């Protein structure tokens, strides 16, 4: 980014990702905000899961269409077989067993399972990862997505800073709620984001004012995916001088 000539203030990020680490998402946001002082928007032509969803929540604008999905932000951990499993499900099961223990309902089998499977340090890391994601969403949504949210949609009430923080925390906690979504890989459509999370996102597929953007993004996205698929590339970076690096 330091080498880009005639860099503009605003940035539109076309994002497709299975996810990754929260720390990486946080660093990306820091870098983008350092280089672009204006509006940063995220457009999701396909999917942005897990840490990708966290990254999207840092945008001033979020653009989806009927095909776009976000995902729960449950951190993933590797079990003893090397498989990746939802970390908050691991933490939730631990809390269930502890609750049964307090009620005096814990069986010997469950006690043995507890002692064998649950590492206190690992549990602490999961709790911190969950709180980290909540803290990031509270900071980013309030500072960027909600910065111009001044009046409530239905009752036309004046929006306070406390209301922005509360709304951001509700969204963050909902995305971390494993019993709500059932599966880490579940896709949250634009209607789910709007209706269940109560988060306003723009529909770049049906909004007449965004029709030109839709045509350009859809065409570029299909061409890039085909180009990368033919060459077996997983990543591509295209700069203004049309060079591609994979």
TrEMBL record:
Pfam families for this protein: SDH_protease
GO terms under cellular component: membrane
Gene3D superfamilies on file: 2-enoyl-CoA Hydratase, Chain A, domain 1
Alphabetized SUPFAM superfamilies for the sequence: ClpP/crotonase
Protein name, UniProt field: Serine dehydrogenase proteinase
Organism this protein belongs to: Limoniibacter endophyticus
Lineage: Bacteria, Pseudomonadati, Pseudomonadota, Alphaproteobacteria, Hyphomicrobiales
């Amino acid at each position: 980014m330091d080498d880009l000539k005639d860099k503009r203030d605003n940035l539109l990020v076309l994002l497709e990702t299975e996810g990754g680490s929260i720390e990486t998402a946080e660093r990306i946001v820091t870098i983008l905000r350092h280089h672009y002082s204006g509006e940063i928007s995220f457009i999701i032509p396909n999917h942005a899961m897990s840490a990708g969803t966290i990254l999207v929540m840092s945008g001033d604008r979020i653009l989806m269409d009927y095909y776009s999905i976000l995902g729960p932000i449950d951190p993933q951990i590797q079990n003893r077989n090397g498989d990746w499993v939802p970390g908050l499900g691991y933490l939730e099961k631990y809390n269930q067993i502890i609750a049964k223990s307090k009620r005096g309902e814990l069986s010997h089998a469950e006690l043995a399972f507890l002692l064998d499977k649950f590492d206190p340090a690992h549990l602490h890391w999961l709790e911190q990862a969950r709180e980290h994601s909540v803290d990031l969403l509270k900071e980013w949504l309030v500072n960027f997505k909600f910065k111009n949210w001044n009046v409530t949609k239905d009752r036309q009430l004046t929006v306070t800073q406390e209301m922005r923080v509360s709304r951001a925390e509700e969204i963050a906690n909902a995305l971390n709620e494993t019993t709500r979504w059932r599966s880490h890989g579940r896709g949250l459509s634009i209607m789910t984001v709007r209706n269940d999370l109560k988060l306003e996102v723009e529909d770049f597929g049906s909004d007449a004012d965004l029709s030109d953007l839709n045509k350009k993004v859809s065409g570029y996205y299909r061409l890039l995916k085909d180009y990368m698929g033919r060459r077996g590339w997983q990543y591509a970076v295209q700069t203004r001088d049309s060079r591609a690096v994979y």
